[in-house]
Amino acid sequence: MLKCSSGIKAIFTLSALFAFALSLATARTAAAEEILILTGTDPNFLPITVASEKGFFKAEGLDVTQRLFPSGADAMLAFRGIGAQFVAAGDIPSILLWSEFSDSVGIAPIFASTGNLFGVVSSTIKDPKDLIGKKVATKKSSTSEYFIDTYLRKNGIDPKQLNVIDLSPPEMVPAMVGGQIDGFFIWRPYPAQAQKILGDKVRVLTSAEGYYVERILLNANRTFATKNPEIVHKVLRAIQKAIDYSNQNIDEASAVMARKIKTDPSIVKDVLSINPFNLKYDAESAKDLEGLSQFLVDRGRLKQPVQITKAFDASYLRAVNPKLAP
Fold first, then answer.
1. Mean pLDDT for each 10-residue chunk of the chain (326 residues)?
2. How far is it, in rounded angstroms, from Cα 55 to Cα 163?
3. H helices within 54-163, ranges in order?
4. What is the pLDDT of residue 312?
5. Which of 16, 93, 118, 247 pairs as cysteine with 73 (C-beta 3.0–4.6 A)?
6. What share of residues in the chain are helix, strand, coil (percent, to 5)?
7. Are residues 97 and 131 in the same domain?
């Protein structure tokens, strides 16, 4: 029988230790997949923040960085140049992204509600026709632009009869206080901020109820998602856990989001109270996106409608939970 010398044994021992250390390093790398998600800075993006801050992404083996922009539309514009794997934005910015950047794909809604958008106007404006000739702000190429357009047309008013100007959401309340605009159509929390500051000098003219279901969509780099479907599934599972957690722990979730976007927790809690967060994508969702796509064609933003069935891939949702994408 052959005997190993102490030197050979030492070599085998060192080799085994090296292999073990290498396997640990590989395991750590695999367990800490670095992911960048771009979002806006309002409460509508709460599930992503909560999933990050409460460790739900980490529990799925993901090292997620959330980078914030003034709005989802701004995040969408940055998505193509930054090299992020995911971006969350409103439905209109998402459609524009799909039309202009072929290496993008919609994978899930994270928010859907008619109770998040409001038209806030001077108290002297009592009905839709009083808007004619007035200066009203919205964020163009965002969900709020479609809201104001739909509201005006359903009330028999041509949008051209107003002076509709483009402002970022944080600019709207100061512009209203300074008398530079007569009103604005935008999402929470800005309508409540205007009412808090201006009191009875302003009023809510309308909500989106009966006019528009606002959606925030999570989009991915298509090449990345195709090559890494399990990572997409992990992201979606973490977001679903964040939604469930937030619905059961409203005060804590509100505090987490408020710290992230530097606002009062009551503002975030106000959004949570309308229960807007969910991942469900159905035939009605697709139909609404098709209508938005045609709106963008009519407004000259798109040359032709986006094929929603190709631009939004519900297979990732079905893989996580078939009930989310029937």
1. 46 44 45 88 96 98 96 90 94 94 97 94 96 96 88 96 95 97 94 95 96 94 98 98 98 98 93 95 96 91 95 98 95
2. 46
3. 56-59, 72-82, 91-100, 143-154
4. 98
5. 93
6. 55, 20, 25
7. no
- Per-residue confidence (pLDDT) for residue 32, from 0 to 100: 67
For residue 56 the two structure tokens come to 């739900």
Q: Please tell me whether residues 218 and 194 are part of one structural domain.
A: no
Give pLDDT, residue 73. Answer: 86
Instruction: Supply the pLDDT for residue 2.
Output: 41
Question: Cα Rg for the chain, rounded, in angstroms?
Answer: 24
Domain boundary among 185, 207, 229: 207
Q: Check residue 80 and give its pLDDT.
A: 85
Distance of CA 248 to the CA centre of its chain: 21
Find all residues with CB under 8 Å of 93, minimum gap 6, and list them: 72, 73, 75, 76, 141, 142
Query: Could you say which of 207, 233, 252 is where a domain stops?
Result: 207
**15, part of any domain:** no
CA torsion angle 235 90 96 85 (round to 10): -20
User: Long-range contacts made by residues 295-304, C-beta under 8 angstroms, separation at least 24?
Assistant: 295/146, 295/149, 296/92, 296/95, 296/96, 296/99, 299/149, 301/96, 301/141, 302/95, 302/96, 302/99
Instruction: Residue 143: give the domain boundaries.
Output: 117-207
- Taking the C-alpha atoms of residue 233 and residue 19, their distance in angstroms, rounded to an integer, is 31
Report the pLDDT value the prediction gives residue 14, as an integer from 0 to 100: 42
